[in-house]
Amino acid sequence: MTSPVRRAGVFAALSTLSLAVPLAGPAIATGVAAVVLLGAFLVTDVTGPAFEALAYPGDYEDGRLYGLITFVLSAVVLGLLAVGSSMPLSVFVGTVVLVGYGNLAERLVRARTAAGTDADSDTDTNTDSDTDNEIAAVTGFCLVATAAAVAGQAAVYALTNVPIEPRLPTVLFLAASGALLAALLRDAFLIYDDPVVMLSVGLLLWLLAELGPELGAIEIVGALAVTVALGYVSYALDTASIAGMITGILLGLLTVVLGDYNWFVVLIAFFGIGGLSTKFRYTRKEELGVAEENNGARGSGNVLGNAAVAIAAVLGYAASSTALLSISAELFLFAFAGSVATAMSDTLSSEVGSVFETPRLITTLEPVDPGTDGGVTWQGEVAGLLGAAIVAGLSYVLFPVVDPIGAVIIVAAGVAGMTVDSLLGATLEGSVLGNQGVNFLATLAGALVCALLMIPIAVLG
């Protein structure tokens, strides 16, 4: 057994101690955490078996088990929230075991695939095998983390004599959402940054639990199947990286469960059409030096930059529908449509307009090189208008509340957001903002324009 696997096994076992809160109460659980922390501080012999079993590579330099200490402290923070706030104990336990056992599964898969690669490879580089191994590791993490989170939540319900059957769909939804977010964060951060992952997952699941999704078990499983299948297709077609695929699956799942499949269709239309548009005359884009990296495969930053506002609107819609917010749910729907229309409009404008050699800077109309931030072409503007119209058309068909005037407003919001993107690109991108920041602000502008334009109509109507 390798050292990373051994360490992950110990951390997984320690994560199970989170059950001490519902089993024995906060006082006993606090004592258990204190004993573990004291032991972590006392074990300082870097050559001893205990230190070697628990230490991350960075722990050896200072002779402290900082990885274990921060792991336990982050669990304690979540435990305090569960005891002293509205966070359910099931969310606390589910989150801790999700991280602990998910890590163990990933380490086991990596050790197994690494051994297989070493045995089968005759060269120093094996890109296809590395990619397959990464997919296997992520899959192993997500599957086991989901199962562990389900088991942890179920154990809490059993210990507190609460029937789990009516809560099973929510349990599965929370477990899968937490596993996907954890996998995404582990890709973004250092692989041993468990405290950040644990706290982030716990806070998300707390929010989702408060929103109280009402889908049944079959609907939740169906939503998972659909989003995972489409996510894998996007990866197989090279329109998304592994991290981009995970991000898309998570966002799609939240959209289906907290909105419905109509919301999901609008969002997936952007991902699908936008992803395929990166392939439009890709060779020409490479010649001009404006092609997306990684053969056009979009990463998590790109996906989040374009869809974060849309998902915030979905969360706002769910919160409004459950009376957690007093804002009209319809405004969140139009904010969602406006942000997606902006993302679609901007993506098509960039991907189509970038192949033409006569862009002009939007602020001065001076000719600039292809790919210059803030450069626009009439072909790109027409493509952007078409993209906004596609989202507006889908919204008109799928959402009864969207009438012809609402559809026109969605188109206007998409074009407005696209224009904001170009203006920010010409003025702030590169010096103050990165590309993802520009995308976020542009989609936020589109969402706000759409929602604000609907307020007087809603009042008069």
UniProtKB/TrEMBL annotation:
Source organism, top-level taxon: Archaea
Membrane topology: Multi-pass membrane protein
Keyword Transferase: no
Entry GO CC: membrane
Subcellular location(s) per record: Membrane
Keywords, ordered alphabetically: Membrane, Transmembrane, Transmembrane helix
Family: Belongs to the TMEM19 family.
Name of the featured protein: DUF92 domain-containing protein
Lineage, uppermost ranks: Archaea, Methanobacteriati, Methanobacteriota, Stenosarchaea group, Halobacteria
